[in-house]
Amino acid sequence: MQTSAFQQINHNSVYLPFPVQENQLSNLLESFDLLGVQGFNVTVPYKEKIIPFLSDVSDEAAFVGAVNTVKKTPEGWIGYCTDGSGFVRGLSERNIELRSKCVLMIGAGGAAKAIAFSIANNEIAKLVIVNRTASKATALKSKLNKSFPKLQIVVNPNSTEDYDLLINTTTIGMDGISLSVPENQVNHCKAIVDIIYNPPQTPLLKLANEQGLVWANGIDMLLYQGAEAFEIWTNKKAPIEVMRKCLEKSLAFAK
Ligand code: NAP
Question: What is the pTM of this model?
Fold first, then answer.
């Protein structure tokens, strides 16, 4: 996806995988300096562990405590987290609005943290967090309260209400069978986004489709977190359609 995007805008770069051992992390940036690497993505399990080696991190990365994109600058290596901003950009492409909306988010893991920060930044009115481990949801609420004191946040409520948007950030549904919310929750929501991209239609999204709701899967988030990284590295607009085609092709191969 990234190499095709570089080619599309005639940017003289390639995107390569570097398998790295944990004990090599401290020497990684020096090696990248020698090799002329200008930027890179970081994935599990180094999204947090890379931070001590960076010169600075963005607000989103500081909030999430994780970095997925790094850029070389005259001031040093700077870390970003593009998951939340990528998620929000995917929503806006589908005309799903956030300002003053009431959002139900299932999950309180790494992806949920990034999404919560970005949707709060986009001025939602209320966030309801439902998570199997209540303490993780409560910890996320406390963190959000500090950065967004006006945002109303509720954790694991006893009763249900109507939501403008439901977001599934858990792994439930990856098996193609399990449903991440009770079935009767679905018709209390106007739009549903599942950040799972494989399978492309989880049981939750099948229900949303059957009930004629606006819905989207995790391909948008995957695409736009990459597009945001591309724009950080190049300072140029990402060629979205080329990137989407590449991504869909590779996901089809992965099946
Ligand atoms: P994570 O940090 O491990 O969080 C997993 C979340 O799922 C937690 O809230 C966890 O609840 C919940 N969960 C897992 N199994 C459960 C079960 N059996 N019952 C109830 N809750 C359960 O993982 P993550 O990195 O946030 O990733 C979560 C999902 O998002 C994955 O499917 C991943 O592929 C997807 N994702 C997609 C994108 C994208 O670009 N589209 C990006 C990142 C992640 P507890 O707190 O109770 O354990």
Answer: 0.95
